[in-house]
Design goal:
alpha+beta; 6-stranded mixed β-sheet; single chain; about 20% strand; 19 strands
Length: about 425
């Protein structure tokens, strides 16, 4: 066991994560992720838990498939289970890195959920943290952005674990050298058309004037503490002033609180009601906040949500045109629709799909079955989940307590821990 292996075990212990469940490690084959895979494998073996390494083949370079197979061979030599996840479909011509990043995490987290893995280890290290801080500083980020990356965060209902944020690139390279392990070199990491690479090349210059990677990472940690306090205050405000309803909409009493907390509350509600995993941009939130403070406010949309006023309250509900497309559901299983509702159906075999009720669907049901509703606006109904058969006929709308024949369907709205 090398010193960094012992350090890794201590880092994991400090994170206070679940250590009795299988884990996955994102491994591109680069030095950072390969070092993480080797360390995590040794740790998992000591904990007697299963581990799998996952490599995403983006298909953005002609050698990507060959490199993925090489990673498989290296990991197999170490006895590490491995899966290659290909990114299929058309590739972007612009904004390549960000689009590829989103696709990568979607593939990785989908695999985890399909295999009942709740924790995905990723290899961001000290210099990555410093680069992220500087990139966000250049973009004018506030406290949240400057707190950079957290050791634990959630994406697509999977916990991302970053145990190496305090470990330098040099330490990882030295570890691989002592393990006599080669690695893949990604030429895009040297491509100065990308802002991150430009920042990376400037780090040595910044270090000369005292802005070392370690100091920048410590500043990010200070920002993270401030962020945690602000999030706590936001949660306290929302628990008192807001109510989330089972139909997937929110009633907000007011936003008469400090602008910072109000903006965070709006961002949180857009994530919940809009089914997003990423917060809305600050300049858009500021415009919404100003509009809501205007006595003549008539309504607004942002992040796939509609904001309106009724009887002194602010209503936030799903914008129908932003709702997800219908998805197929199978008998006796559950599925997530619109990243907001967990659908469980007891249905015969056949072709069944869950999608938005829509205005036409509501009008047809209301007329045929004399249905009523208790929501403050009919518009809220249109984005409710509805089950349709192979002919497109609506056979169940759980929130309206409507179903036909032997069909049984339930829809639970996913809220947020901050409101519990």
């Amino acid at each position: 066991m090398l010193p960094l292996d012992r350090t890794f075990a201590s880092l994991i212990k400090a994170l206070n994560i679940k250590v009795n469940m299988p884990i996955a490690v994102a491994c591109s084959g680069g030095p950072d992720s390969l070092a993480l895979a080797l360390m995590a494998h040794g740790w998992a073996r000591g904990q007697k838990i299963k581990m799998v390494a996952l490599t995403v083949d983006h298909g953005l370079r002609k050698d990507s498939a060959k490199e993925a197979k090489q990673v498989n061979a290296w990991l197999k030599k170490h006895g590490i289970p491995h899966a290659i996840l290909p990114w299929k479909g058309r590739k972007p011509a612009r904004n390549i890195q960000e689009t590829a990043r989103k696709a990568r995490y979607k593939l990785l987290t989908d695999y985890c959920k399909q295999h009942s893995i709740s924790q995905l280890f990723v290899a961001h290290h000290l210099e990555d943290q410093a680069e992220t801080f500087l990139l966000r500083l250049a973009r004018g980020s506030g406290v949240d952005g400057l707190s950079a990356m957290s050791t634990l965060t959630t994406m697509y209902d999977v916990t991302l674990v970053r145990p190496l944020l305090g470990v330098s690139k040099a330490q990882l390279l030295d570890y691989l050298n002592k393990r006599k392990q080669t690695y893949v070199i990604d030429p895009s990491n040297e491509n100065t058309m990308f802002d991150r690479v430009k920042i990376r090349n400037l780090l040595p210059t910044f270090a000369e004037i005292g802005l070392s990677a370690d100091r920048l990472a410590k500043t990010a940690a200070n920002m993270a503490r401030a962020r945690a306090h602000l999030e706590e205050e936001t949660g306290r405000f929302l628990r008192v002033a807001c109510k989330i309803l089972p139909e997937g909409y929110a009633r907000l009493d007011h936003i008469n609180i400090s602008e910072e907390i109000a903006l965070r509350a709006l961002a949180t509600l857009i994530m919940i009601i809009g089914g997003h995993d990423i917060k809305t941009r600050m300049n858009d939130l500021e415009r919404l906040y100003a509009a809501l403070k205007d006595p003549g406010f008539k309504g607004a949309t942002l992040g796939g949500c509609v904001f309106s006023r009724t009887k002194g309250l602010i209503l936030i509900y799903r914008e129908l045109k932003a709702a997800a497309k219908p998805i197929a559901v199978k008998p006796g299983t559950s599925a997530i629709w619109d990243n907001r509702f967990e659908i469980t159906c007891q249905i015969p075999r056949g072709i069944w799909r869950v999608g938005a009720l829509t205005q036409a669907g509501w009008l047809k049901l209301a007329k045929a079955h004399k249905l009523t509703h208790s929501t403050p606006s009919k518009n809220i109904l249109y984005s409710l989940p509805a089950l349709r058969d192979y002919r497109g006929r609506i056979v169940a709308v759980p929130h309206l307590k409507f179903s036909t024949g032997e069909v049984r369907c339930e829809a639970a709205f996913k809220s947020a821990p901050i409101l519990v």
